[in-house]
Design goal:
The structure holds two protein chains of two kinds. Chain A is an alpha/beta fold. Chain A has a single domain, classed as Mannitol-specific EII, Chain A (3-Layer(aba) Sandwich). Chain A contains five helices and four strands, in the order βααβββααα. A four-stranded mixed beta sheet of chain A has the order 1-3-4-2, with helices on both faces. Chain A starts with 10 loop residues before the first strand and ends with a helix. The longest helix of chain B has 17 residues. The model of chain B has no long low-confidence stretch (mean pLDDT about 95). Chain B has four helices and four strands. In chain B, β1, α1 and β2 form a beta-alpha-beta unit. Classes of the chains: A alpha/beta, B alpha/beta. At the A-B interface, α2 and α3 of A face α1 and α3 of B. Chain B: It comes from Thermoflavimicrobium daqui. Chain B: This is PTS ascorbate transporter subunit IIB. Chain B: Keywords: Transferase.
Chain lengths: ~150, ~100
């Protein structure tokens, strides 16, 4: 079973991390493993939060980590990790974070379709809650495809 | 009819700002406000001509001092009620100018 915008292999559930940096690291490593981006891109996603603040926590409990399209990005890709224990990113209102999406894009336009689908997920608070607590990737794919 | 030039701003102008742009566009449609929404990164936003900027609090506080147009700051990027509550008064004022 495969949803149109995220692969089951790109999902890790109930990950244990000590910091928001580590959470982005784990989500970024999935993109690296797929050869969609490299360690430099993962580092850039973490650096972006250091420099620009935790605005990537777009809605309560969900962060969307990303950095600028660059040579480091080989293809558009998106990953998702859920955290066993939610972690603070330092956001005024949307902490603590349960779900971390990481995405990389080669250009400015191609990834739009995935982002549109992601945006509709972000609007659905009960869906986010269900994804945060499940231990089944199939369940996540099913929830994201609804 | 007057058309507003709006930019949604995030760190790189392609992720968060794209999500925000979609939601601002929906609000414009629902409120029958004529406007074009584009995206920009925080570095180039100050140099981009526009009528109003939508962004997060973190970036908005940085931007406010370097731009002359209103900056609408949003906590939840997909919350249309928040976009409407904070953005509509500004948009309506601009339309009336």
């Amino acid at each position: 079973m495969k949803s149109s915008w995220i692969d089951k292999e790109n999902i890790q559930l109930q990950v244990e991390v000590q910091s928001w940096e580590e959470a982005i690291q784990v989500a970024g490593q999935i993109l690296e493993r797929n050869h969609s981006s490299d360690a430099q891109y993962t580092h850039a996603m973490i650096q972006a939060v250091h420099e620009l603040g935790p605005y990537i926590v777009l809605v309560p409990h969900v962060a969307l980590a990303h950095a600028r399209p660059s040579q480091a990005v080989k293809k558009d890709d998106i990953s998702l990790i859920t955290l066993k224990d939610p972690i603070s990113f330092g956001h005024q209102q949307n902490d603590p974070v349960h779900l971390v999406f990481a995405f990389c894009a080669t250009g400015d336009q191609q990834h739009l379709e995935k982002l549109t689908l992601l945006a509709s997920v972000l609007e659905n608070e009960s869906l986010i809650k269900q994804i945060a607590h499940t231990t089944s990737k199939d369940e996540v794919i099913k929830l994201l495809s609804e | 009819m007057k058309s507003l030039n709006i930019i949604a701003v995030c760190g790189f102008g392609l992720g968060s700002s794209m999500v925000l742009k979609m939601k601002v566009e929906e609000v414009l449609r629902e409120e029958n406000i004529e406007g074009k929404v584009s995206t920009a990164d925080v570095g180039s936003a100050a140099a981009t001509a526009c009528d109003v900027i939508f962004t997060s609090y973190e970036l908005g506080e940085k931007l406010e001092s370097s731009v002359t147009v209103p900056v609408v700051m949003i906590q939840n990027f997909v919350n249309k009620a928040e976009i409407r509550e904070k953005g509509l008064p500004v948009l309506q004022r601009l339309m009336a100018e």
